[in-house]
TrEMBL record:
Keywords: Coiled coil, Membrane, Transmembrane, Transmembrane helix. It comes from Anopheles merus (Mosquito). This is Transmembrane protein 120 homolog. Residues 7-51 form a coiled coil. InterPro entries: TMEM120A/B. Residues 350-380 are annotated as: Disordered. It is found in: Membrane. GO terms for cellular component: membrane. The keyword Membrane applies.
Length: 380
């Protein structure tokens, strides 16, 4: 009898589980329908964005043609200016809409990962991934600093290879993560992305540089260079993190902006003291290039030496030029803003000066008993 009761209980449990499974099937069916609907809406939004951009290009082209006309009234010019402002605003709006839609992978990601969708549609997940990227850089930077210091103290080939392999893996991973961040709205661009690709190649060449006298002559200098660069990057990370947090809170920076090894215009506030450290690091890169160039004349020199010399020289030129351009751009903006402010103050003073004689003339006319312009108008 007890066995029969147990079986009945089991059948009852199974019946309840079957009911729950039917609920699961219904939920899954609804999920599939919503997913298909989501893909349809994503495709529809993408097509409409393409249409918007096509029409804006046509309108911009026609505006340029229209502006070439000789006789344009001030009213027409105002309309053109307003249209140009509207187009710029619409471009920004479309960019914001795109952040919630899947993006095409870059060619680099397609080669590395294949045609896999790496778009992160949830805003919180995007920010979380970006924060993980920052933590990854910080942790690997500290590990690299420790390994560089150990390689200065101990001259073991195995320890060198561990450090060099770490550099290759770090920069490879960094380029992949940055490409994923780029797909998801991060605005890192230009030289600072290329810098990491060149560093990846540089680390790979260092890894295959055979043991010999030329390597031993360059080894200590390279390890000291890495110690210095790691310390500078750590300082940059700490200060850039704080500045980015404040600017994002004020709405002046994008949530997907990241810390970089160089200098951007938004870092101007409070980070100018880093200039000497940055340029010392760049000069260190040039010194590495010069040392390697001299080592090319060594009897045991291999092909890695001239290649590394060129790569370090490229890094020096690229870093120095980009940072100087940012500084010049910022100084130009400050000068322009200063002149605009001075012009605005001068125009206000001029208006005040013009008004004063008018008021004095009105007072004199009143004293003589003559009607003022306002009184004459009222009389009329």
């Amino acid at each position: 009898m007890s066995l029969s009761v147990d079986v009945d209980e089991l059948e009852k449990d199974w019946t309840e589980l079957s009911d729950e499974y039917r609920s699961l099937e219904a939920a899954n069916q609804q999920y599939q329908e919503l997913h298909e609907r989501l893909e349809e809406m994503q495709e529809k939004c993408t097509k409409q964005i393409q249409h918007q951009r096509y029409r804006m290009r046509q309108i911009s082209k026609n505006l340029k043609t229209y502006m070439t006309q000789e006789k344009l009234t001030p009213e027409d010019r105002d309309k053109v200016t307003q249209l140009e402002k509207s187009i710029m605003k619409r471009k920004a709006q479309i960019h914001e809409i795109e952040q919630g839609l899947p993006q095409q992978n870059s060619q680099y990601l397609k080669i590395i990962l294949g045609d896999v969708n790496v778009s992160i549609l949830n805003r919180n997940d995007k920010i979380r991934y970006k924060d993980e990227y920052e933590k990854f850089k910080l942790i690997l930077n500290v590990i690299g600093l420790l390994l560089s210091f150990l390689n200065i103290v101990f001259n073991y080939r195995a320890l060198e290879l561990v450090f060099l392999f770490l550099l290759v893996w770090y920069y490879c991973t960094l380029t992949i993560r940055e490409s994923i961040l780029k797909v998801n709205g991060s605005r890192i661009k230009g030289w600072w992305r290329l810098h990491h690709f060149i560093s990846t190649v540089c680390a790979g060449v260092l890894l295959v540089w055979p043991q010999g006298e030329p390597w031993q002559l360059f080894r200590s200098q390279f390890m000291y260079f890495n110690v210095y660069i790691s310390l500078v990057q750590y300082m940059q990370f700490r200060y850039q993190k704080g500045v980015l947090y404040r600017l994002k809170a004020l709405g002046e920076r994008h949530n997907m902006d990241i810390t970089i090894e160089g200098f951007h215009s938004w870092m101007w506030r409070g980070l100018k003291f880093l200039f000497p450290f940055l340029f010392v690091g760049y000069l260190f890169q040039f010194y590495n290039a010069w040392t390697l160039y001299r080592l090319t004349q060594h009897p045991d020199a291999t092909w890695q030496i001239p290649v590394l010399s060129i790569l370090f020289l490229i890094l020096f030129v690229g870093n120095s030029f980009t940072t100087l351009m940012v500084i010049l751009q910022k100084q130009t903006e400050r000068t322009e803003n200063r002149y605009r402010l001075m012009s605005l103050i001068a125009s206000k003073r001029q208006k005040t000066t013009v008004r004063q004689p008018t008021n004095e003339g009105a007072e004199a006319a009143t004293a003589k008993g003559e009607p003022t312009a306002v009184e004459s108008e009222k009389t009329k």
